[in-house]
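Let's sit down with a protein and look at its sequence and fold side by side. We need material for that, and I hope you will provide a protein of your own picking. Once you have written the record down, we can walk along the chain together.

***
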Amino acid sequence: LEPLLGPLPGLNLEGIDWVIVGGESGPGARPMDAAWVFEIRDQCQRANVPFFFKQWGGTRKKKTGRELEGRTWDEMPALASGVASW
């Protein structure tokens, strides 16, 4: 879900194996509201969907970082049985 440019209330996560959220980056990047990210993260937790927070974004994305509430969110989906991992 990137770039996340607005809230996504009532996001249907049925059939979704993984959610990646990130803000827009580069010249002209539009801001991302933390409440939008928290709402999606919370929905993922309730639905047991892995949540990965990529970045806050902005014109200087390395400065804004990728921590959300004091930690990084690097959850990954489990590999299906019989799938080779590289």
